[in-house]
TrEMBL record:
InterPro entries: DHFR-like_dom_sf, RibDG_C, Riboflavin_Biosynth_HTPR. Coiled coil: none annotated. Residues 4-177 form the Bacterial bifunctional deaminase-reductase C-terminal domain. Pfam families: RibD_C. This is Dihydrofolate reductase family protein. Gene3D superfamilies: Dihydrofolate Reductase, subunit A (3.40.430.10). It comes from Microbacterium yannicii.
């Protein structure tokens, strides 16, 4: 049985993009990028909201020879995973191995994770929040960047409550910190 894991980078004040929509302050260096590649490698399927998909789809077409080794490794991983994009506004997707669905269905996602031998990844704070509210999110992973941005797009929705159990952590030379959590449920007692 697989699990559903959410990963993103965030500022210390909890945003994945600042008020201007930019996230250059969270761009990983080679050490962080290699770590994230290893973290995400087991996930053979990625579930994405429209915004996350629009940010990530560039990896399908980047010339591999122009990329640093950690970026090249990520691009190759991205091209090999199955992707499900949830959007009511997109009419089509342009990347390989990608399906478009009009709405997030928690029952379908739980069935997918239960049937999978590997974890599924979920991308985008709003979609991960929807999964958390529906009780299908199993893990939360974050690389906290050494920045405070004062607002923008949240890591997870405001008002969302989760009880978490820390199971992994790591400090990086650039001042970033990785934290890995399991979502605790009432029946985990």
């Amino acid at each position: 049985m697989g699990s559903l894991m959410y990963f993103n980078s965030a500022s210390l004040d909890g945003y994945i993009a600042g008020p201007d929509g930019r996230w250059e302050w969270a761009t990983p260096d080679d050490e962080v990028h290699s770590f994230v590649n290893d973290l995400m490698a087991p996930a053979a399927t990625h579930l994405l909201g429209r915004r996350a998909y629009e940010v990530m789809k560039v990896w399908d077409d980047l010339p591999l020879d122009d990329l640093a080794p950690a970026e090249r490794e990520f691009a190759l991983q991205w091209r090999e995973v199955d992707k499900v994009v949830y959007s009511q506004t997109l009419e089509a997707v342009s990347t390989g191995r990608t399906e478009l669905r009009p709405a997030f269905d928690p029952d379908e996602v739980r069935a997918m994770t239960d049937a999978s031998a590997t974890p599924l990844a979920i991308g985008g704070g709003r979609l991960a929040s929807a999964a958390a509210r529906a009780g299908v999110l199993d893990e939360v992973h974050v690389v906290v960047a050494p920045a405070v941005v004062g607002g923008g797009i949240r890591f997870l929705d405001e008002g969302l409550r989760l009880d978490l159990e820390l199971f992994a952590e790591r400090r990086f030379g650039n001042g970033s910190v990785y934290l890995g959590y399991r979502v605790r449920r009432e029946d985990d007692a």
